[in-house]
Design a protein that fits this description.
CATH topology of the largest domain in chain B: TIM Barrel
CATH class of the largest domain in chain B: Alpha Beta
Distance between the termini of chain B: 71 Å
Low-confidence stretches of chain A: none
Strand content of chain A: 15-25%
Number of domains of chain A: 3
Low-confidence stretches of chain B: none
Helix content of chain A: 25-40%
Shape of chain A: globular
Oligomer: heterodimer
Strand order of the largest sheet of chain B: 3-4-7-8-9-10-15-16
Largest interface: A-B, 16 and 13 residues
Shape of chain B: globular
CATH class of the largest domain in chain A: Alpha Beta
CATH superfamily of the largest domain in chain B: Aldolase class I
Largest sheet of chain B: 8 strands, parallel, barrel
Mean pLDDT of chain A: 94
């Protein structure tokens, strides 16, 4: 019988080994060779391609000239989560994709060099930045993820007194909780959090705005509020059987492997992951490393439409993840104990009609239903929006995407600004960590400009 | 297969690649290994009164991750007894009769000292002698090497003393640590030198350790200047070879030395007048086997060019080396950028904009693509853009038809003098 198999946990040693960072960093020799290969372009396209505008030729030249502190400072100055981004950025679509050496030879490994420099900073324990002289203004930041941390750090450097309200026990957001450890060790994200704290930013962890403190209270107590609460867990897709034991939320699955609590038992399991985005890939590879016997990604479209990056797809394949293209889940079937046993799927085909996003709409092939035997189903079909929180402040939004004025970064409330995933919507760019960081920075500068203008008006 | 044999002032060798007098030619074991590897000749490490060497002798300059762009040493001449060296020279020559075996010599500037060592060395059978008037460190402090090489009359006199007794060809090795190397070269020739070899190493301090503040290298916390060689010195050496080659008062065969790292470098030296070349740093960096790549490259080059003997390229570029005053002031080249090959690193733009003549524009073309364009009317043809361009073929220096007939600075001065003379005659009239 299928479900008589024992699904368990790997030994702590195996788990530690499986979740240790997969890709080794550059050796000093490799870093010197690679950094010396950089042409040090003028008006370099890699800088333009970086959402945070890191002066890449400069930091690489600093590596080449044995100035790792200078290199790390250049990176972190532009990107407060530059150590995480060194690992999770889709570099081939950003800086490395823009490198002029594409075609001529091969692009510089910018991400790996960025990691080399920031790893040095992490190991050296040196503080790279200092807070600015106080301007006696107070800002509350809701959410301690990439956007919130970036905003907080830049505000602190501009002289603001900043308090971050973080619902979870640790700050860092997605970087700390939502990206698999073998791609991004939690220590890296927590170092970035620590760098922000060292600038005098107070991080109130375990405080959920809207529950433990009201947003209204923050708006009253502070001169400005930055809403950077990101997004929530995976929403329900209304599939029959979602409540069965063995059905998991992809984000929670990843998060559990990053917390000091026993991970979800998947040793020996057959796992189906529904979705084909970045989180779906992470959930799939995570399942492999939890010991799953078989991991299948179930996606109703094809490889061409999947939103995961090429490098993520390649990595998943190397990990042994299988892909069931043009396959849509119909319902999850459980046994008498309420435990998952099968995923009922239907074969799809791409229609001629394109949806609002321009992608071909998949339609089911009648009578093609089949049963996929599974022990676990992982749902990875997007993230919930914080509509409740947004509405409690009375902010204008479009289906949970907070609407802001691009120039002032302000929401419909004059004291509330917003950045990060909470303002990303379809058609507004990829929800990358690096973009969130840039939005956080820009929000901080907008707030700074606002108060500089008002104080000069007062004079 | 081209004929790679050379004849340098009567010294024959199967190919032009000789090991220079240096650490690689310290012993019979090494020179025999070198000949087995394919080296055409070797100049045995300088014989003289044995010295004592320091520990910590070499240092190098690395550039942008490349090892050994330049090489520095404070090692002196042989530290082994003369008898031991002579025995090994004898055995080596016996085993390799067709390879050129030249012995480098350095003794005090005394006639009898020179007579004695020349006789003793020639007695065991060598193909030639090389007089070391170039070693810039250590020996110079004792009045030998570069110290005597920097005094043209002393070079001439010592060469003469050697020639009084020498039966084999005498090569005088020159120091570059002098204002005009042709002066010393001429004195060597006046003294009877059959050939000259150049350059010896250049006075150098390889570096300072920025953490310990010690010199590089240091001997127990103290350093002294060494001799610089390796790829970085090649242009200096090539110029000195060329200056000697085009000096009609020198007029003896030249053995070219200085930073020769590959067959292309060897071809350049030979085109500029060297009858053969001597190499050290490349062997020290890679081992004797590096000569295989040199021989193969040279052979293929000659075959491709349809040149049957390497001797046919010797001196072919000498007449093209001249004085600045003889250069055509109306010759014009301008930079032209091939948009297909250009990778848009913009290095040409910033180099020109900041440090040259501000004539490369960064533009956006009709397709929205970034393009770099030279304003040819403002381009002085300095070559800087093509030098900094990382992609071969992206920037070409294009020859433009001269607007005016060729005229050199010397032509111009002569014309002006003529005009002045004519006008003063007019005034007289």
């Amino acid at each position: 019988m299928e479900h008589s198999r024992v699904i368990g946990l790997l030994s702590p040693e195996r788990l530690t080994a499986n979740f240790a960072e997969a890709q080794p960093g550059l050796t000093r020799k490799a870093a010197m060779e690679e950094s010396n290969r950089c042409l040090y372009c003028y008006d370099a396209p890699c800088i333009t391609a970086c959402p945070t505008g890191i002066n890449i030729p400069s930091f690489i030249k600093r590596i080449a000239t044995d100035n790792l502190k200078g290199a790390a400072t250049t990176i972190m100055d532009s990107n407060p989560v530059g150590a995480s981004c060194a690992r999770v950025c889709p570099t081939e679509e950003l800086c490395e994709g823009a490198c002029v050496l594409n075609g001529a030879s091969k692009p510089i490994m910018i991400g790996m060099l960025q990691r080399y420099a920031t790893d040095w900073a992490i190991q050296s324990g040196q503080q790279l930045f200092a807070p600015g002289p106080s301007n006696a203004k107070k800002v509350a930041v809701i959410g301690g993820g990439p956007a919130g941390l970036s905003a907080a750090r830049e505000l602190a450097r501009e002289g603001f007194s900043v308090v971050i309200y973080e619902a979870k026990p640790m700050a860092g957001g997605l970087d700390t909780h939502g990206i698999v450890s073998f791609r991004l060790p939690q220590t890296v994200s927590l170092w970035e959090v620590e760098q922000v704290e060292k600038l005098g930013v107070e991080i109130k962890t375990g405080v959920k705005v809207g529950v433990d403190v009201s947003a209204k209270q923050l708006i009253e107590d502070y001169d400005a509020v930055v809403l950077a609460a990101g997004m929530g867990y995976v929403p329900s897709i209304g599939l029959e059987g979602e409540e069965l034991a063995g059905v998991y939320d992809a984000i929670q699955l990843v998060e559990r492997t990053k917390l000091h609590e026993p991970s979800i038992a998947l040793l020996g399991a057959k796992v189906a992951v529904i979705g084909a985005g970045n989180t779906a890939i992470d959930a799939a590879t995570c399942s492999v490393r939890l010991g799953a016997e078989q991991v299948k990604m179930v996606y109703r479209r094809t490889r061409d439409e999947m939103t995961a990056y090429d490098f993520e797809y390649e990595f998943a394949k190397q990990e042994g993840v299988e892909f069931s293209w043009l396959t849509a889940p119909k319902r999850i079937i459980g046994d008498s104990n309420g435990k998952v046993t099968h995923l009922e799927c239907v074969q799809m085909q791409l229609s001629d009609k394109a949806g609002a996003d321009g992608r071909a709409i998949p339609i089911p092939i009648e009578g093609s239903e089949f049963l996929m035997p599974v022990d676990a189903v992982v749902l990875a079909i997007g993230q919930k929006r914080h509509v409740g929180l947004i509405e409690s402040i009375g902010l204008k939004h479009d289906r949970g995407v907070v609407i802001i004025d691009e120039a002032t970064r302000r929401t419909s409330h004059p004291k509330v600004y917003a950045a990060g995933d909470i303002v990303f919507g379809s058609g507004k760019g990829d929800a990358m960590v690096v973009s969130a960081a840039e939005q956080g920075k820009q929000t901080a500068y907008a707030i700074s400009r606002h108060f500089a203008a008002t104080s000069s008006e007062a004079i | 297969m081209a004929d790679l044999r050379i004849n340098l002032a009567g010294i024959e060798a199967p190919n032009p690649f000789w090991l220079a007098s240096a650490p690689p030619t310290n012993t019979g074991y090494q020179v025999q290994r070198a000949f087995e590897a394919g080296w055409g000749g070797a100049v045995w490490k300088t014989l003289g009164d044995p010295i004592i060497n320091t520990s910590s002798r070499f240092a190098a300059v690395h550039f942008n991750g490349q090892r050994v762009a330049g090489f520095n040493n404070i090692e002196l001449i042989t530290d082994r007894p003369l008898e031991v060296n002579l025995k090994e020279i004898y055995e080596t020559k016996k085993k390799f009769p067709k390879h050129a075996l030249v012995v480098s010599l350095m003794v005090e500037p005394k006639r009898e000292k020179w007579h004695e060592i020349v006789k003793r060395v020639e007695a065991i059978g060598v193909d030639g002698l090389e007089l070391n008037f170039g070693c810039p460190h250590g020996m110079a402090e004792r009045g030998m090497g570069a110290a005597s090489g920097q005094q043209p009359d002393l070079v001439e006199m010592q060469t003469m003393w050697v020639k009084e007794v020498a039966q084999t060809p005498v090569i005088v090795k020159l120091t570059p640590n002098i204002t005009d190397i042709t002066v010393v070269a001429r004195h060597a020739v006046s003294g009877g030198a059959d050939a000259i070899s150049l350059i010896n190493t250049i006075n150098s301090l390889a570096g300072v350790d920025i953490h310990s503040w010690n010199t590089i290298p240091h001997v127990g916390g103290k350093g002294s200047h060494g001799g610089y060689c390796g790829p970085a010195v090649k242009p200096i050496a090539l110029n000195m070879v060329a200056e000697c080659a085009r000096d009609m008062h020198v007029g003896v065969p030249i053995s070219g030395i200085g930073g020769i790292s590959n067959w292309q470098d060897a071809v350049e030296f030979m085109l500029m007048g060297a009858a053969g070349v001597q190499i050290c740093t490349a062997a020290m960096h890679h081992g004797f086997r590096i000569v295989e790549e040199m021989i193969d490259g040279l052979n293929n080059y000659l075959d491709d060019k349809g040149i049957s003997s390497v001797r046919d390229i010797v001196g072919k570029s000498v007449e093209r080396y001249s004085n600045w005053g003889d250069l055509d002031l109306n010759y014009r080249v301008v930079a032209r950028i091939d948009q297909e090959t250009c990778i848009n690193c913009n290095k040409c733009h910033i180099a020109c904009e900041d440090t040259s003549h501000q004539c490369i524009d960064m533009l956006t073309n009709a397709d929205g693509k970034q393009v770099l364009e030279v304003r040819e009317e403002d381009c002085v043809g300095c070559n800087l853009c093509s030098i900094v361009c990382p992609v071969d073929g992206a920037i070409e220096m294009v020859e433009l038809p001269g607007i005016q007939p060729p005229m050199t600075w010397n032509d111009r001065q002569r014309a002006i003098e003529k005009l002045n003379a004519a006008s003063s005659e007019m005034e007289v009239v």
